[in-house]
Structures are given as structure tokens and as C-alpha cells.
């Protein structure tokens, strides 16, 4: 009772088989269940294509960020920001020469 040789064989086989399946899955990758969860569902801005996980984030982006992006672009390079102070700091820091010469030419004119 208890030590049936056939059962031991079967159990041994199950352990070996399980290990093989595990290594096989780790090689090919375990398929993840698709659908059924809200994860990965994103809200994309129609204007610029940025994606947000929450609709409220997208709304605040469209309201406060997206519309202002276009207005606050650096005139010397591709830098963009939605904060006026950021743009001013960027221009002074990165384009101080151009900024000064433009200001000087405006003054002398
Ligand atoms: Zn946008
Ligand atoms: Zn710039």
C-alpha cells in the first residue's frame, strides 16, 4: 500500500514532462490572454497623437497642453513647450547669441 511501482513511474514521467513543457514555454513565450481587461486601452489625441490611459488626462491635455503647443515653439530650433517661461528660458540659454543680435538689430533700426 502506498508504493505502487507503476504510480511512481507515472509520477516520474509527469514531473519530467512538466519540466519539458515549462522549458518549451519559456523558449517560445507564454501567450498572454487578450481582451477582457481594460489595460492597454488608451485614449489618443486626435490633434497630435499622444495617448493617455485616462480620458480625463486626454481632456486636460487637449484643453491646456495641446492647443498651446503650437503657439509656443522655439523660433530657432525644434524645441516646443506649453509654458511661456520655459520657452523664454530655453531661448536665453540655447540661443543667447541669436536672441541678442535680434534684439540689437531691433533697437538700432
Ligand atoms: Zn494633442
Ligand atoms: Zn531653440
TrEMBL record:
Domain C2H2-type: 43-70
Keyword flag Heme: no
Pfam family, one: zf-C2H2
PROSITE patterns in the cross-refs: ZINC_FINGER_C2H2_2
SMART domains: ZnF_C2H2 (SM00355)
GO molecular function: zinc ion binding
Superkingdom of origin: Eukaryota
SUPFAM superfamilies per UniProt: beta-beta-alpha zinc fingers
Keyword vocabulary terms for this entry: Metal-binding, Repeat, Zinc, Zinc-finger
Keyword Repeat among record annotations: yes
Listed name of the protein: C2H2-type domain-containing protein
Organism of this sequence: Ranatra chinensis
Lineage of origin: Eukaryota, Metazoa, Ecdysozoa, Arthropoda, Hexapoda
Amino acid at each position: 500500500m502506498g508504493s505502487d511501482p507503476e504510480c511512481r513511474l507515472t509520477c516520474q514521467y509527469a514531473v519530467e514532462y512538466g519540466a519539458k513543457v515549462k522549458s518549451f514555454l519559456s523558449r517560445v513565450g507564454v501567450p498572454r490572454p487578450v481582451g477582457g481587461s481594460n489595460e492597454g486601452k488608451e485614449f489618443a489625441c486626435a490633434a497630435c497623437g499622444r495617448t493617455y490611459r485616462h480620458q480625463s488626462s486626454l481632456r486636460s491635455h487637449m484643453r491646456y497642453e495641446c492647443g498651446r503647443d503650437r503657439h509656443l515653439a522655439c523660433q530657432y530650433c525644434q524645441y516646443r513647450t506649453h509654458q511661456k517661461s520655459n520657452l523664454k528660458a530655453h531661448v536665453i540659454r540655447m540661443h543667447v547669441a541669436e536672441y541678442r543680435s535680434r534684439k540689437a538689430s531691433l533697437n538700432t533700426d
